[in-house]
Amino acid sequence: MHMAEPINLEAFRQKKAQKLQKNWLGRFVWLYCPACETIEYSEVLSSFGRKHKCGTTVEEQEVELDLSVEATITLYNLGIIQAKLAEAKKGGLLKLAMKGMYKLLKQLEENEKTYLARLEAAGNCRLEPLEGEWEELKKNLPIKETNVLGLEVSEFRFDPMRRFRPNQKGERE
Ligand SMILES: [Zn+2]
């Protein structure tokens, strides 16, 4: 009998984790235009197919992801970017090299903000980061790569082209 079982803390934790995860599962789709060779993600799924602005039907790869996990990684990245922006400002924007860096950081900040907004749109809720120390959290997050700026690239966002060329790498996901 399920009800008669003694309370098992680990099982309880797992159940809770599962429940949490279930609540935040979402589906995103990568859209690839073979004519323009451009790729973008969307939180909007379509069962009827869709066309790129050039008129070509895009290839689509749907991916299930944990919105809360993605938001955690994105918020971490935003923290890194904003710290670097503050640094760049202090360093003096007059230097040409700094200007380029500042512009790049602004673009990256915009990308992360957009991604977070899309995640929240998909979940129809405000997403909070998972609790815990980053170094500890990180071990259990689907991080595929840390780039040169120290930003974490999640499994979902890592090299999206690999999803559209199964033969080249022999794997499709
Ligand atoms: Zn196109």
* Category by helix and strand content: alpha+beta
User: What is bound: which ligands?
Assistant: zinc ion
Strand residues, percent: 15-25%
SS element count, helices: 5
Distance between the termini: 40 Å
Output the radius of gyration.
20 Å
DSSP helix fraction: 40-55%
Largest beta sheet: strand ordering: 2-1-3
Give the low-pLDDT segments.
none
The quaternary structure here is single chain
Provide the number of structural domains. 2
H/E order of the elements?
HEEEHHHEEH
Shape: flat
The description of the largest β-sheet is:
3 strands, antiparallel
What is the averaged pLDDT score? 86
Would you count the extended β strands for me? 5
Write the layout of secondary structure elements.
Elements: H1 9-24, E1 25-33, E2 38-42, E3 59-66, H2 67-90, H3 96-123, H4 134-139, E4 143-146, E5 152-154, H5 166-169
Antiparallel strand pairs: 1-2, 1-3, 4-5
Helix pairs in contact: 2-3
The protein binds zinc ion (ZN).
Zinc ion is lined by residues 33, 35-36, 52, 54, 56.
Summed up:
The protein has helices at residues 9-24, 67-90, 96-123, 134-139, 166-169, and strands spanning 25-33, 38-42, 59-66, 143-146, 152-154. By secondary structure, it is α+β, with helices and mostly antiparallel strands.
